[in-house]
From TrEMBL:
<keyword id="KW-0560">Oxidoreductase</keyword>
<dbReference type="InterPro" id="IPR036396">
    <property type="entry name" value="Cyt_P450_sf"/>
</dbReference>
<dbReference type="GO" id="GO:0006082">
    <property type="term" value="P:organic acid metabolic process"/>
</dbReference>
<dbReference type="InterPro" id="IPR050182">
    <property type="entry name" value="Cytochrome_P450_fam2"/>
</dbReference>
<dbReference type="InterPro" id="IPR001128">
    <property type="entry name" value="Cyt_P450"/>
</dbReference>
<dbReference type="GO" id="GO:0006805">
    <property type="term" value="P:xenobiotic metabolic process"/>
</dbReference>
<dbReference type="GO" id="GO:0005506">
    <property type="term" value="F:iron ion binding"/>
</dbReference>
<keyword id="KW-0479">Metal-binding</keyword>
<dbReference type="InterPro" id="IPR002401">
    <property type="entry name" value="Cyt_P450_E_grp-I"/>
</dbReference>
<dbReference type="GO" id="GO:0020037">
    <property type="term" value="F:heme binding"/>
</dbReference>
<dbReference type="InterPro" id="IPR017972">
    <property type="entry name" value="Cyt_P450_CS"/>
</dbReference>
<keyword id="KW-0349">Heme</keyword>
<dbReference type="Pfam" id="PF00067">
    <property type="entry name" value="p450"/>
</dbReference>
<protein>
    <submittedName>
        <fullName>CYP2J</fullName>
        <ecNumber>1.14.14.1</ecNumber>
        <ecNumber>1.14.14.73</ecNumber>
        <ecNumber>1.14.14.74</ecNumber>
        <ecNumber>1.14.14.75</ecNumber>
    </submittedName>
</protein>
<keyword id="KW-0503">Monooxygenase</keyword>
<dbReference type="GO" id="GO:0005737">
    <property type="term" value="C:cytoplasm"/>
</dbReference>
<dbReference type="GO" id="GO:0016712">
    <property type="term" value="F:oxidoreductase activity, acting on paired donors, with incorporation or reduction of molecular oxygen, reduced flavin or flavoprotein as one donor, and incorporation of one atom of oxygen"/>
</dbReference>
Length: 452
């Protein structure tokens, strides 16, 4: 262990996901590293994750002052705050999203509308190779725009594309996990880790969202809430804890949480499906059996599409989009089994340890949707994975996320045959780890099967 830097050399040995797996194999399901004078405790495995973040949630739900939380989110709004401020914003977020249609038919209509725009973009490619992550990111962002800003944008809108490109670049920055764990890296000369660039992007986003907020303030009808910004303005008068400083960060985190993870999961699904044509064919057979007409799938079809659901669950498992979620902080000394986690420690939920648990998922690196199909052919076992985290900090937008994944992925497979850019040559299944684990850029061909 080095003075000040502590166990930093261990983190320089490669991918943090692979490093954590090696440390878990050596030291067990709870291990700690000393980084920059702080103890960073990694929690692995379903049993310990639930023991720490569910049963002992009162001691492990705070956020520490790490780079992303302190400098990007400025310790504001739902994701970054603690205590009463966090409860105020979490309650508002859940209520506002419910008011805007989460879990209701009106939200499904928005997603279905955007799905049709997205499918038209794929049709317009005429079977030529395209970087599919671009239209996916735009489509999912548009759904959040309709919720947050009350409008959607054309896929070629220059300002809209600039906005989502900044969000995408910021959240996919591979240096953020390292700076979070060792904050001194942000102060190295020459901005080697791009910390200044990240902060500049944050200021740019805040400026954009402040402009939308100002426009809403000038046009709001308190009796007719149009979107999330209106909900915030209206609720501010009732709850002083919703401050003007929190406002643009609240809009940003809605974009980040509602766009990045979902768009990347859909992109991973395309990668896995083009590498597994037999899975595509079985999905499509199930879809045509359930929906023999030309109409696209709806949520009412979900119960009759167990294999499609299994494909989505297996994509979430193997893609492992948020392997470490965001750091938590211990607010007291707590004994977990024989381990004492000290007050002030950074506590990292290693969700990857569940997704790649060999006992739960034998041959865990294989894409196999049948893991989620029982002997009766029914979908089961979704609770074995935790793609939306767990405990008090779990994702409040889970219902929308599940709806988007189901409608986008099933609609794609029903309408198109997904093929690699070059027959027989497939993209790598390795990704890049920023806040989320994202696939490396690749192209695919979408060959239309039948006209809707």
């Amino acid at each position: 262990m080095l003075p000040l830097l502590g166990n930093l050399p261990i983190l320089l040995q490669g991918n943090l996901i692979e490093i954590s797996e090696k440390l878990k194999a050596t030291y067990g399901s709870i291990f700690s590293l000393s980084l920059g004078g702080k103890w960073v405790v990694f929690i692995n495995g379903n049993e310990y994750l639930r023991e720490v973040f569910v049963k002992n949630a009162e001691f492990f739900s705070d956020r520490p002052k790490v780079f992303f939380i302190d400098k990007v989110l400025e310790s504001k709004a739902v994701t970054a705050q603690n205590g009463l401020e966090w409860k105020t914003h979490r309650t508002f977020m859940v209520t506002a999203l419910r008011n805007l249609g989460f879990g209701k038919k009106s939200m499904e209509s928005k997603v279905l509308e955007e799905t049709q725009h997205f499918l038209r973009v794929l049709s317009d490619s005429n079977g030529d190779p395209i970087n599919v992550s671009d239209p996916i990111y735009v489509a999912v962002s548009n759904i959040i725009c309709s919720i947050a800003l009350g409008e959607r944008f054309d896929y070629n809108d220059v300002e809209f594309k600039k906005l989502i490109n900044v969000i995408n670049e910021l959240l996919s920055n591979q240096n953020i996990p390292a700076i979070n764990l060792l904050p001194v890296l942000q102060y190295l000369p020459g901005d080697i880790f791009g910390a200044k660039r990240i902060i500049q992007q944050t200021h740019l986003l805040k400026k954009v969202f402040k402009r939308y907020i100002a426009e809403h303030i000038n046009t709001i009808d308190p009796g007719n809430s149009r979107d999330f910004i209106d909900e915030y303005i209206i609720e501010q008068k009732r709850k002083p804890g919703l401050t003007d400083d929190d406002f643009p960060i609240a809009v940003f985190e809605l974009f980040g949480a509602g766009t990045d993870t979902i768009s990347n999961t859909i992109t991973w699904s395309v990668l896995y499906l083009l590498k597994n044509p037999d899975v595509q064919d079985r999905m499509r057979d199930e879809l045509l059996c359930t929906i023999p007409t030309d109409r696209p799938p709806t949520m009412a079809d979900k119960l009759n599409l167990p294999f499609c659901e299994a494909v989505i669950a297996e994509t979430q498992r193997l893609a492992n989009i948020l392997p470490f979620a965001l750091p938590h902080a211990a607010t007291e000394d707590v004994m977990i089994d024989k381990f004492k986690i000290l007050k002030g420690s950074f506590v990292i939920p290693n969700l990857s340890s569940v997704a790649h648990d060999e006992e739960l998922f034998p041959d865990h690196l294989k894409f196999d949707p049948l893991r989620f199909i029982d002997k009766q052919g029914k979908f089961y076992g979704q609770e074995r994975i935790v793609p939306f985290s767990l405990g008090k900090r779990s994702c409040p937008g889970e219902s929308l996320a599940r709806m988007e994944l189901f409608l986008f992925i099933t609609s794609m497979v029903k309408k198109f045959h997904i093929l690699p850019e070059i027959d027989g040559i497939f993209p790598s299944s390795k990704g890049q780890l920023g806040i989320a684990y994202v696939p490396n850029p690749f192209k695919a061909r979408f060959v239309e099967r039948n006209k809707y």
